[in-house]
Structures are given as C-alpha cells and as structure tokens.
Amino acid sequence: MTKVGQSPLAVDPGFGIYVHWPFCLSKCPYCDFNSHVRAESIDEGRFLAAYRAELGHRAGLTMGRTVSSVFFGGGTPSLMQAGTVAAILDAIADHWSIAPHAEITLEANPTSVEAGRFRGFRAAGVNRISLGVQALNDVDLKALGRAHSAAEALAAVEIAASIFERYSFDLIYARPNQTPQDWRRELDAALKRARDHLSLYQLTIEPDTMFERLRDGGKLRVPDVDLARDLWDTTQEVMGRAGLPAYEVSNHARPGAESRHNLIYWRYGEYVGVGPGAHGRISTPAGRRAQATERHPEMWLTVVEGDGHALVEDELLTKEEQGDEFLLMGLRLAEGIEPDRFEAMSGRRLDPDRVASLVAEGMVEYAPQGRLRVSVEGFPVLDAVVADLAA
Asked: Beta strand pairing status for 287-293 and 279-284?
C-alpha cells in the first residue's frame, strides 16, 4: 500500500491472481457478468486441471512476482468444492511466492447449503469472504432474482463472522420504489451485522439483461436522477457517521480494512486472470499487456486442454491507453492518483487548464502529497469527470 511521503513512482500496488468460476444456480435479472447456468453437474476435476494449466502458463509470463492477493470471483465460486479451492491455491503456491498474510477472498451466495461450506473454505486457505446479500427484505430479494431469503442472508453473515476474521457483504440500492428513508433503515440494519467493510452498489441497468428488457417494456421503473442522488447522499452520510467512509465509489471500510485485491486493480497494479472470461494486466520488458480469456466455459475448457491456455486477447497497451486506464481506475479511489505517475506512464501531463476548470467547479481537488482526487460532489458524475481529464 502507498505510504505517506513515499514517492509515487516507487509505489508497488501489488500482484494479484483472479480466478473466475463462471457457474451460478440461476441468472439474476440485473447481472451482465460472465455467468452461466448448467442443468447438469460440473466436472470439477476436469476444470481443476485446466485452471492448473492456465496458472502454469501465466506463471511463465510473470516470473519472480510475489502474490499479495487471490480472488475467487464469478459466477458463484461458493458452488465449488472446498477441495477444488484448496488445489487451486496449492497450484498458485507452486508457481509463485506468497506474501505473508496474503488476502485470499472468495465470493459466496448466502444460501444455507453454501454457508455450510464456509469452514471447508477456511480450511482450504480462504481468509476473507464476500457475500452477495443485495437486499435485507424478501420482496426486494425476489425482485432482484435472488434465491435466498433475508433470514438466510443474515444467518450466512453470522456464520461468516464466526469463521472469518475478515468478511464483507454487498447491497444494491436505487432499487424500484426505494426511498431514502427505506435505504437509511436498511443501512442501519446492515451496519449492525458488518464488521469493517460493506460494498454498496447503485443499481444500473446493463445492456442485454432482463432488467433492460423490463425497463424498455415499461415494466420496471428505477429512481430518477434526483432520487438516485438522494440515495447516494444518504449512503455517504450513514456510512461516514458509522466510521466506514467510501474508499472507492461503491466500497466502504474502516481504515485498514479495504479490499486489498481490488486496490491492486484501482491502483493499477499487476494481476493475472484465469478461468472463462478472466482479464489480466501484466508488465513485460516490452510494456504492459492487456489479457483476456475465452468467455464460454466449455469452449475455454477445450482450448486450455488443447493449447495449455485460453488467452484470446494479449495486447501491448500504448502509453495513451495505459494513461486512460490509470485515470479510469485510480480516480475511483477516494485517495485519488499521483499526477507524476500518470505522466511517467502516459508520456504526457494532465491538461492544467482542464484540471483548473474542474477544481473551480468543485469536481476535483488536490489532496496531501500532491495527489489529485475526485471530490465528494464529483463522485456522482465520476464518468464525466474522468472523460474530461482524459480528453
């Protein structure tokens, strides 16, 4: 992590490994992730062999790295057997050095069956759980397409708290018919169960989802811009008062409890991605490379078995592309970015006139050590601010 007074060019954001498990029991109507439902059971042994092969391939491209974080995402990784998780972690340890106290996160759905696996995941080496709760009332859970009840979700949170020192759970707000008063009560209830981290996502209608079709058909109404802003302001007020301020647009934590894996992304560190549709960013002697794998699970499996990996994208990023990505990721953080690092990476300075204009408008501000960050007023229109700075 960045230390106060440390030169921005000397900062090492860390090296992470993302493992994508693409299968779910059902597809949520708001979800645009690479997730798939299968009627038949998954051959985990065959998939495990493919994960091992991909890890070996990526290790050859990133020799000498020390892994500071592993993240099992999906899909629903908690549908995996604990033995599969353990074997993947063993394979990672075979190829890279593992940092002391490395963060090992697994995403889970709070059904009673999956919650019962938590002890197995802990024994496998997972030390942080991220639960997809999404809402704390049954009506909204049903509308969101979730398979669990509010009671099951709270029970799963309690089990996670009893097994893992570090855990988090997600909630979605700006749901249909939700008021700031409703959301305030829900946040207060969530804070009674949270330890030091909550992820709070504003509902967005993504392309090619069921929610998009319902909205376009007039069967789904989401809050307008003004109400969405009221819900955002309520979020910041309640979480700030509770001592869990936003350290990123949608993530709140007590200082020191941030998701270390996601900080690697947002601080523009290195990470490899294995599994169907996984993305990676690695540094090579030629420069930084953007990587992505085959998205379709069974096709990914076939390609890995034939070629030893399933990379379908492996492109050298230009300086301009790196600068744009750095802004897009880094300005999501409350800590902001180091302009000197941007200049060293992109080969150009941020336009001083654009920066001055955004500062005058109250959209960005300078923080200690010369960092540039988006202001509280600017965060609700973050995409526009980033686009202005990158232009």
From this structure: antiparallel
